Amino acid sequence: MTLLVDITVWDPVPWVTRFRELLPGRSVLTPRDTFDPAAVRYAAVWKHKAGGLQGLPNLAAIFSLGAGVDHVFADPDLPAVPIARVVDADLRDRMSEWVVLHVLVHHRAQHMYDWQQQQKIWEDDPNQPLARDVRVGLMGLGVMGADAARKLKAIGFDVAGWSRAARSVPGIECFAGRAELPAFLTRTDILVCLLPLTPETRGIIDAALIRQLARDGRLGGPILLNAGRGGLQVERDILACLDEGTLKAATLDVFEAEPLPQASPLWHHPRVTVTPHNAGISEPRSVAAYVVRQIEAFEQGGQIENIVDPRRQY
Predict the structure, then answer these.
(1) What are phi and psi of 83, to 5 degrees?
(2) Domain limits of the chain?
């Protein structure tokens, strides 16, 4: 059995090293190595080069090394084999940490206090609301969205969630489908987007959506957090809504083009926080172990979990 590790953007060395630790006696190779294409049984990929998985006649499955699979479907010559996404506690918890951190930063007006420190101003805000007075809305109630929703609820926030298909998360008010999206948005002060990028969700965070967010909240205006995919957002609309006052602030971990171009006005906008797509990073020790468990179970006659629906691309 040969595992092909086809990675661009990231350094492949830690991944190859980890896979070799976990698969002693098996062949773990990269596209730069010389190998027999017929020997390749599995591929573990992150933004692999288009066409790079062609000509592997015995390929049984493709594993995305991140939570998203949009990068896999960007390949127009993708082999017709099962594609599995990562569902891993390490990745889930990292994402929830990012969400909770930035919801609290906005809730407790930390950016204002950072500025006051620079100006040597000692002044408190007597109108600071409690978490229960702030309505947080999660777009995307998969493994990561549901976990972040539960953790925000535990802190005390008024949490609701929206997903494309109906889901149930105990203790969380759930909305589903396009018909229920307006009701979800109008009750949301802080919008957290963790949706996957699919043909259906591309560009969903636009001016029309932002202008439906709550205007009567305790924070003085709606706030956007996006740690899903950059293709979900229309950045010119986000900037326009910030400048017109429709949107109070935005914290963005993902962008239409990555790395974020130096010329992007998002870098220096006073009400935008930029993080470098690190909200839910894939850590080789944990994610590679997840992939290997899947391979071992499959080779023992079991099923590969979290297979993507190629029609929905998720």
Answers:
(1) -120, 130
(2) 2-86+282-299, 89-274
Q: Are the folds of 2-86+282-299 and 89-274 the same?
A: yes
Among the listed residues 44, 74, 75, 73, the one whose alpha carbon sits nearest the alpha carbon of residue 59:
44
Question: Of 229, 236, 271, 293, which residue is the catalytic one?
Answer: 229
What's the pLDDT tens digit per position in 63-116?
Answer: 999 989 999 999 999 999 999 999 999 999 999 999 999 999 999 999 999 999
- What DSSP state is assigned to residue 264? -
Among the options 26, 218, 277, 293, which is catalytic?
277
Q: What is the DSSP letter of 131?
A: G
- In angstroms, how far is CA 297 from the centroid of its own chain? 27
Q: pLDDT by residue (tens digit) across 270-305?
A: 999 999 999 999 999 999 999 999 999 999 999 999
Q: Which CATH number is 2-86+282-299 given? A: 3.40.50.720
- Domain 89-274 matching CATH 3.40.50.450: the answer reads no
Is 107 marked active-site? no
Phi and psi at residue 74, to the nearest 5°? -70, -15
CA 144/CA 162 separation, integer angstroms:
13
- 3 state SS of 71: helix
Closest CA to 219 of 187, 250, 251, 190: 190
Secondary structure of residue 176 in the 3-state scheme: strand
Q: Is 48 a catalytic residue?
A: no
